Amino acid sequence: MDWSLFFIFLASCGAAAATGAMFSPGPWYDKLAKPWWTPPGWVFPITWTTLYLCMSYAAMRVAMSADNDVALALWGLQIALNTLWSPVFFGLHRLKAAFVIIACLWLGVAATTFAFWQVDWVAGAFFLPYLLWVTIAGTLNGTVWQMNKEVAA
After folding, report:
1. What is the total count of domains within the chain?
2. φ and ψ at 45, to 5 degrees?
3. How high is the pLDDT of residue 89?
């Protein structure tokens, strides 16, 4: 294992995490109508920390494998979309635009999972929790958008 690769990928995840920290939910989000199944706030940092570690480990494994170009390009796409979501949702308060981004993110994560699985099934397996979480987050984003049409843009 090349742990320097792991830390490079983790640094990329750190950029995405930084936007989440800079554009935190705050009072605006607290006032929105949300479904009963919305996870409590403390779940998000624990979940994202775990996912970023899994994503970095998976990317490291793929980076050390042959025929990894498409898989790593997809990893770059999904982390870019991941980084974009928080500023759009929490910063700009654009629920609809954030939903479009997270739908694209879901497609990117699904494609990355598939591509990783083709290169290294362990790496693909390490991406499955991320796909599940983006499914939940996308459903939550869409539901919050629908429940708050008067403030959604």
Report:
1. 1
2. -65, -35
3. 96
